[in-house]
Amino acid sequence: MVSEIDPETVKQQLEADNPETESTGERIQIIDIRSQAQFEQGHLPEAINIPLDKLPRRIEEIEWSQHIVVACPIGQSSIQAARLIQSYENVPHDATIQSMAGGYDAWEYELVQES
């Protein structure tokens, strides 16, 4: 079963992954399943964009050794995407795959803008 992670915890983990701060030892990877246009308007730090409709073809781009958080506009389609990722046969059984609760609507922090 896919669990959810709140945006505040995602932010804390991203900051802990920052080389200038203390590392937790568990690196987080953000998979943004919104469209490329939405991604370019603003996204979570260090997120990679794999739109939901392209996820089955691009699933190999995910680094399985990491904690994976899937983000979408409101936190609904990210649950489905996280389930899809979790069902992929090459996912290690110890991988942590979560959906960001509330999606981008719940993210109250600065977004990275594409230039």
TrEMBL record:
PROSITE patterns: RHODANESE_3. InterPro entries: GlpE_sulfurtransferase (IPR050229), Rhodanese-like_dom (IPR001763), Rhodanese-like_dom_sf (IPR036873). Residues 24-113 form the Rhodanese domain. It comes from the Archaea. Coiled coil: none annotated. Keywords: Transferase. It holds the Pfam family Rhodanese. Residues 1-25 are annotated as: Disordered. One of its GO terms (molecular function) is transferase activity. This is Rhodanese-related sulfurtransferase. It comes from Haloquadratum walsbyi J07HQW1.
